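Operator note (shift B, R.M.): manual run for Methyltransferase requested after the automated queue skipped it. Running by hand, logging everything below so the morning shift can see what happened. Input copied straight from the record, untouched. If output looks odd, do not overwrite the archive copy; leave it for review.
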Amino acid sequence: MTHDALPELPAPLAIDYDTVHVVEPAHQAALVDELQHRGTRIVAIEGDLVMAAGRAGVAAWAANSWLAPAEYGLASINEAARTLKAIQRNWHGHHLAHFRRAELIAAKLPTIRFRPLAFPAPPPTAPLGAWSLVARDRMIVSPVCSRPFADGQPLFVEDRHGPPNRAYLKLWEALILARRWPGVGQRCLDLGASPGGWTWVLAELGADVLAVDRAALAPAIAGRANVVTQAGDAFAIDIESTGPVEWVCSDLIAYPERLLALAHYWCRAAPLANVILTVKCQGTVDAGLIAAFYEIPGARLAHLSANKHELTFFRLADGGPAEAARWPAEA
Ligand SMILES: C[S@@+](CC[C@H](N)C(=O)[O-])C[C@H]1O[C@@H](n2cnc3c(N)ncnc32)[C@H](O)[C@@H]1O
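Run finished. Output pasted below as returned.
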């Protein structure tokens, strides 16, 4: 059997950046600050893509960090598609509508069906690269990305009846990235729990939940057999009053300084627990203050697709999730 010789693939263009971060416009300033704080240089900003030089690795404010970027000149649509297919199979095209040719290239790539995840389920394991056209004749590609979802956004089979609000999606996303979730009978603390979206997630998994809030939880959640509610100040709760816990979750609305102290306390008080905590950021983000979270051993931070102007702090037993930023950055 003979094979036709494959035409040679084009050589990548020279680039002066190491990482590309996809960021929502509302968080671009915070991302730029973060990258500068990490000692990286912003080389260019093209729409929602921020190109940075210096190995900062995953950035907390990025929706997705492209970790192995390369650029190619675009001689033809066929050549671009061939180049992508030669690198790997699975690609997500980012913002293809900018250029008609991008859609034509995408049409020549294998179709990927992004099936909604039925929680709890591990994230997809197949590598998913990202590519985009940054000019009519310039393609940027990265076979390695920080998140296993298209543009970093997981799709879920949503539950429109059980939870009292949509905040449950934030905890689903955090637990999916953590690749772990509480099991039956595990003790979970949910700080700032009302009206009960997170408590609902934990209780559905069969965990025993102590839900603390000044406000009441929805009766259907508060009344569950594996949920105990406590009305009052969540900052006044300590390990002596809760007893041992395997999970500490907090979605409290409070100043980041107070949440930093809270994270320090629970990471020390429950050294083996998995800690997941929302860091609410008001207005301009203080990059120095955010950096202080990394002083907690094992700390990671990520902007989840379900997050608003806030980050999610992780301190997990296995040091993950890899999708979240840590300090110092990965080599
Ligand atoms: C974003 S909401 C939590 C939503 C919740 N995770 C859910 O899934 O339904 C923040 C909560 O923090 C509570 N909160 C703020 N400060 C508090 C404090 N010092 N002590 C207790 N609860 C507090 C508020 O009452 C509010 O219910």
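Quick read of the result: Residues 66 and 145 are 4 Å apart (CA to CA). Residues 19-152 form one domain.
Leaving this for review. - R.M.
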